[in-house]
Amino acid sequence: MARNGRRPNGDGWLFKDGDGYRVKLAVGIDPSTGATKYRSARVKSHEEARKKLRQMQAELQQGRLVPSTKGNLAIYLEKWLEQHIRTSRSPNTYRQYVWLVRQHITPILGTKRVEDIKRADIKNLIALKAKQTVTPRGPSSESSETLLSRNTLRLIRAVIHAAFEDAIQEGLIALNPASKVDIPKAPAKEAVFLKPEEAARLFKAAQEDDLAEFWMFMLTTGTRIGEASGIRWQDIDFKAETVTIRGQLQRIDGQLQYRATTKTNQVRVLPLSSDLAARLRELRGRDMIAYQPDPGGIVFLNPAGRRLDPKYVRTKLMRLCEQAGVQPVSPHKLRHTAATLALAETGDLHAVQKMLGHSQIALTANIYGHAVDASQKRVASAVERVLRGNS
């Protein structure tokens, strides 16, 4: 029987609905209209309806029952991306979130209502994605297909967890179904890198390239491509022969722009070899004569005096590898190569961690375990030579 006025939370009733029964429960008030919000369910018998009503009332008291949302998860996520992510994150992060939502989350869970999604649904999503194969991009790919990386799986979980946290704040759900969802373990991958003799050949070939100083910088500092291409003259201390990594170059709205942030939000100071420092002094002089300096003080520019586009850098590196007679590698593999060479020569894991900007030394050890093993072998050999009385 219909009733007038607002109902208090937990007030519910049941009634005949066709060949079954419907249960209806007041679960809250819409703050924008003042109207009562309801949850309902349909069952076959009067006894089932009584049990369902008691169950829904118990769930409401436990904070596990909330008003129904309008639309499905796909609609909610698109709204969430625009209202929460576009306004609070960097353009690159926003684009990454959009890609993760539309490529990985919406196709599987998009038709479900937000409040109907359970932890089992999120676990199933991650399990399905862990088995998904993708085709690697770029000429340096070693196989036609590979599984999604564990990092991509973590990002998928992080995005949907963040979306559900905001849904909790909005009163759409009571608990986050993405909480405590584990990422399947995968065997640790060793970094792909150039062997010392290959790195030496590439370094020699790079001396004659119009990006010679850029290649030297990447091979000796182990910086990421965005960090290296975003180095500014004010970041270089020629007297101390150091460079401070403060930001990176990113493509934003079609333009290569400098952003004062790194991948791990860390500022780090790296040493420059005396040879590289001297080459950079010469480069600064040549640039001032050849063309107008970059308005943001960016150090490494292409022959036309423009900032380095990542695609341009990759194409140039592939050609340089071919010229040097070494396996084709991506710019990120130069970072792995620099780290491997540094570890092999020094055995100083902490120094290499600082060089790379890793937040945890365990990450450095896991990726570059091969180099750690080699340096430890030399340490053992050195100790033995001392014990045998050899210098």
Description of the structure:
- The N and C termini lie far apart (99 Å).
- Helix 11 (331-346) packs antiparallel against helix 12, helix 11 runs parallel beside helix 14 and helix 12 crosses helix 13.
- With 391 residues, this protein is an alpha+beta fold.
- The protein folds into 3 domains: 12-61; 73-169, Orthogonal Bundle (DNA polymerase, domain 1), CATH 1.10.150; 196-380, hpI Integrase, Chain A, CATH 1.10.443.10.
- Helix content is 48%, strand content 12%.
- A hairpin with a 4-residue loop joins strand 6 and strand 7.
- The strands form 4 sheets. A 3-stranded antiparallel β-sheet has the order 1-2-3, with helices on one face. A 3-stranded antiparallel β-sheet has the order 6-7-10, with no helix packed on it. A two-stranded antiparallel ribbon has the order 4-5.
- The chain has helices spanning 46-61, 73-85, 91-109, 119-130, 150-169, 196-206, 212-221, 225-229, 274-290, 310-324, 331-346, 349-356, 361-367, 369-387; strands at 12-17, 20-29, 36-43, 133-134, 146-147, 236-237, 242-245, 248-252, 255-259, 268-271.
- The protein has 14 helices and 10 strands.
